[in-house]
Design goal:
alpha/beta; GMP Synthetase, Chain A, domain 3; 518 residues; five-stranded antiparallel sheet; five-stranded mixed sheet
Length: 518
């Protein structure tokens, strides 16, 4: 075990999210901050672990009185905020199911998810009032909406801080997190309390975290990567999460990260790319350059593959280790994670403890070390299934194994390497072309800001690779120059048949490039 203060929690079996918050409140009380939310340059909001648990209990009692009961789905449409996290745990504490929503979706997309989840209530804010009212009017299952601006009046001022009665168990569903829908309509991933708690525990056994650490929480909270790594992991360790409301003012975001003494920076590859390319004047106007190196002790990248070139440039520039992980919502989500001391270039690290990973070919045969195939995952963090979709669940969960749809390989030391998405594989004249390999080669060009490689089908049925690139501002490079350089890096059949220059590439809200749109 890592720390004596957490021994009793590590030994607990089938701990629920509500019990976790209660135990942490008992352990740290009013002596330690659970959450900080910067408001302006000179003000912030903060809750101790006791304050947080009290607020969670007050909201839990309120929604119970509203008629919400165990297994009811409650949707959350909120920007990053302390209230989002209070809502999430209050829902879980009474055995209901939280359905976090992506605030960047359109009305029709939100309507689809809420209807699919059959949500009974919607927790939102005044900034979404018009949309929320229309959703409540249109969707029969929605009994009521609750705006966070009324929390103080309705819940916190005279609310009951006692622990609510709950028959919640570890195997119960805690949350429905809808996939981004990059390969079709979004599906609700059913994650249990056991799934989420086991994943947080496994992460803590991989990376050394103490109650003195402070985590950045700047990615959108609806996402499984954010909820686990920026909320559950720090809560389990008794650390503090610094909640950043918006990424619109990038300079201000990182000023707040330094000002609030974040030690663990968690972000996605596009953010590390921006930082690695930022000119020194930008950094100096955001905060004194010397302070950037302290107190941040490690940076973690997730949500999508991190190009090696970006990792090397970032570490060279800032002298802070940047480690990469791999996961998917269906696995709660972290599957593998590098460590500062044990990592290999291009690898996402070893699978977490109690998770089995194997690589299989198209016939289900396990591949030897170094062989490329589909990544299969088995263990306590693997989802219960897709909500109300038994056929889709059966297609991805077979004999206890989760078929990830990702292509990868394991080396002789058990380190996992992500090769590509299985559906992104390009087959040209019988030869496999992995777009990620070609994209990594393109990222060696300093002029290229973003790159995506997809397969284009020819009239004869064969496929050829085509690249879409976005150049950095003020840069210029020709298609001929790119082709000439790629000849030294790639086999001839892997070189894109055509280079298409774009001003921007279509992306999901988490920064993944939408290749199907290309």
């Amino acid at each position: 075990m890592l720390y004596d203060i957490n021994l009793h929690i590590f030994r607990r079996q089938h701990l629920t999210l509500g019990e976790l918050v209660k135990l942490k409140a008992e352990e740290f009380g009013s002596k330690h901050l659970a959450l900080i939310q910067p408001e302006t340059d000179v003000s912030f909001r903060a809750l101790t672990y006791k304050d947080f648990n009290d607020r969670v209990n007050q909201l839990a009692h309120f929604i119970l009185k509203k008629g919400i009961k165990k297994s009811d789905r409650v949707a959350i449409l909120l920007r990053n905020s302390i209230e989002f996290i209070i809502s999430y745990f209050a829902i879980a504490k009474i055995g209901a199911i939280a359905v976090p929503l992506n605030i960047m979706l359109t009305f029709e997309e939100l309507d689809f998810i809420i209807q699919d989840a059959k949500a009974s209530a919607l927790i939102t804010s005044e900034s979404f009032e018009e949309m929320a009212d229309e959703l409540v009017a249109r969707i029969d299952s929605l009994q009521f909406k609750l705006e966070i601006e009324n929390f103080e009046r309705d819940c916190f001022k005279h609310g009951d801080i006692s622990e609510p009665d709950s028959v919640c168990a570890g195997g119960d569903i805690a949350t429905l997190i809808y996939t981004s829908g990059t390969t079709g309509s979004p599906k609700g991933v059913m994650l249990t309390h056991d799934n989420l708690i086991s994943n947080a525990k496994a992460c803590l056994k991989r990376v050394k975290i103490t109650p003195k650490d402070r985590f950045s929480c700047l990615l959108l909270l609806y996402h499984s990567f954010t909820l686990t790594t920026c909320v559950l992991v720090p809560f389990y360790a008794g650390a503090t999460s610094v909640v950043i409301k918006s990424l619109k003012n990038f300079k201000e975001v990182f000023k707040q990260i330094i000002k609030n003494k974040v030690t663990i920076l968690i972000a996605i590859p596009p953010i590390y790319r921006i930082l690695s390319e930022a000119r020194t004047p930008f950094l100096l106007t955001a905060f004194p350059f010397s302070k950037l190196l302290n107190p941040i002790k490690v940076c973690v990248s997730g949500g999508d593959a991190l190009p090696l070139d970006i990792m090397h440039r970032f570490e060279k520039k800032f002298g802070i280790p940047l480690i990469e992980g791999y996961g998917l919502t269906e696995a709660s989500p972290v599957v593998a994670l590098s460590t500062v001391k044990k990592r290999k270039p291009g690898s996402v690290g070893r699978p977490l403890k109690k998770l089995e990973v194997k690589i299989v070919d198209d016939n289900g045969n396990e591949m030897p070390a170094g062989g490329t195939g589909e990544i299969l995952i088995k263990g306590p963090s693997v989802m219960k299934g897709y909500y109300d979709k038994p056929e889709e669940t059966a297609a991805i969960l077979k004999d206890g194994w989760l078929y990830s749809g990702d292509l990868g390989k394991l080396d002789e030391d058990g380190f996992l390497y992500i090769v590509d998405r299985k559906k992104d594989l390009i087959i040209s004249k019988g030869l496999n072309i992995y777009p990620k390999e070609v994209e990594d080669a393109l990222y060696t060009f300093m002029e290229i800001k973003e790159a995506a490689v997809v397969g284009r089908r020819l009239e004869d049925g064969d496929e050829v690779p085509v690249a879409y690139v976005v150049l950095k501002e003020g840069e210029n490079i020709t298609e001929e120059a790119i082709h000439a350089h790629l000849k030294h890096l790639l086999a001839h059949y892997k070189i894109p048949r055509r280079i298409d220059f774009r001003k921007e590439l279509p992306k999901t809200p988490t920064g993944k490039i939408l290749k199907r749109s290309l």
